[in-house]
Specification:
The complex is a heterodimer. Chain A is an all-alpha fold. Chain A has 6 helices and no strands. Chain B contains 10 helices and 3 strands, in the order ααβββαααααααα. The chains are: A mainly alpha, B mainly alpha.
Chain lengths: 149, 258
């Protein structure tokens, strides 16, 4: 599949989710761009090393970087940018194939897919965790201390 | 500003109103506790002890007069609204800068939490963007995307109806997943679409508990293990509900098309 087309689709999906999660106004296009960049990071990481866990980790790290930066720029919570931005990484496919394999009675494949889904969720968590911990050391200006995290 | 006893109690309940609205909009536990603490201290209340889990708030403060107040809140339903969390965060920052009178805070809170007028068409477009976008993202054909979009409309209609009927959230997910899977199945049978799997993946993206899972991770990092486990189990139950709904209907309708 054309990577540019897929990245655009990732941005469109992120826009949709950002809207459903209550983001409005100028934050919406920001979320969409962040989602696109996350997917671009996923694809680029895949070029460097052909391992979906590595790609997910890099993409989650980039997403957190963008979300934390936007939070400081817009005086908003980082989570509100992070949640829509990592939407393209959510292992919906693995989840579906787990269920589908179960219905087929193929326990081995179901286990395989379930582990894959859990592993993806795990590396996304690690990617988010590492970058957001680094950001805690960047202190905001005293007058807007509350913007942190 | 002079604070009498009644005002102290009022200030605490004001802080809880903000905390309750934040928690209900899907804010993380540490943010809710932090906000309540800051607002209380801005009002001159000393020593603030907060305890929050996703459906309960418990705050005790000691007032300058020496009296201690405790108030609790129990939340029964929440709906994710990250934009509202941002606006409430801004409100609490404003209070910290210059304590507003509680009446004014209540007025602003009511204005922020009031349902906003918006065109329903945008919501429909967002549902379609999420589902059709995702099935194309997973490499489906345009026919599949159309089936996904129809599934999204069915999910939107059922969610609206189920919410009005006060159906349990997990049961609602089971129903929505089943309806979307049935829609995908019929589209493939009619020959309009080709891949049941890609259509359903697009549709269930709407139901996947992404915010619960993310919040669970962030609560875990902040050390709020109880809240993290509550969110995690909620996410797991919803995921199983989606699987049961979608798989059940596909099996019923004549086997899974791989």
């Amino acid at each position: 599949m054309n990577p540019i087309w897929q990245t655009l689709l990732a941005a469109v999906c992120t826009w949709g989710f950002a809207y459903l999660f209550g983001m409005r106004g100028r934050h919406l296009p920001v979320c969409a761009v962040a989602g696109g960049l996350v997917w671009a990071a996923y694809l680029l990481a895949g070029l460097a090393q052909d391992n979906y866990l590595f790609s997910n980790f890099c993409a989650a790290a980039v997403g957190t970087l963008i979300a934390e930066t936007c939070a400081r720029l817009f005086q908003c919570t980082a989570t509100s940018f992070l949640v829509p931005a990592v939407i393209p990484l959510i292992p919906g496919g693995a989840l579906f194939y787990t269920m589908e394999a179960f219905v087929r009675g193929d326990r081995a494949a179901a286990g395989e897919y379930a582990i894959q889904a859990a592993a993806i969720a795990g590396v996304i968590a690690v990617g988010v965790y590492i970058v957001s911990s680094l950001f805690r050391y960047i202190r905001p200006r005293a007058k807007d201390r509350q913007t942190e995290v | 500003m002079e604070w009498t006893l009644a005002r102290e109690e009022d200030a605490l309940s004001c802080a809880l109103d903000i905390g309750e609205a934040m928690l209900g909009a899907g804010a993380e536990i540490y943010r809710v506790e932090d906000t309540i603490g800051r607002v209380c201290r801005a009002y001159g209340l000393e020593r603030v002890d907060t305890f929050a889990i996703p459906n309960t708030l418990l705050v005790t403060v000691r007032a300058p007069s020496g009296r201690a107040f405790t108030q609790t809140r129990r939340l029964h339903e929440s709906s994710i609204n990250l934009g509202l969390v941002n606006r409430l965060n801004q409100l609490s920052r404003d209070i910290c800068r210059a304590p507003l009178p509680p009446e004014e805070v209540r007025a602003r809170l009511a204005a922020e939490t009031a349902p906003r007028r918006e065109r329903p068409i945008v919501r429909v477009l967002a549902y379609i963007a999420c589902t059709a976008g995702f099935s194309l993202f997973f490499g489906s054909s345009w026919g599949d995307a159309l089936a996904s979009a129809c599934g999204a409309l069915i999910i939107l209609a059922s969610q609206t109806w189920l919410r009005r009927a006060r159906v349990n959230h997990i049961l609602a997910c089971v129903f929505c997943a089943a309806a979307a899977a049935a829609c995908a199945f019929f589209f493939v049978r009619l020959g309009v679409a080709q891949h049941v799997d890609r259509i359903v993946i697009g549709d269930i993206m709407l139901l996947i508990p992404g915010v619960e899972l993310t919040n669970s991770m962030r609560d875990m990092m902040a050390g709020d293990i109880i809240a993290a486990l509550m969110h995690l189990f909620e996410a797991l139950f919803i995921a199983v509900g989606i699987a049961v709904g979608a798989a059940g209907i596909l099996a019923l309708l004549g086997g899974v098309i791989g």
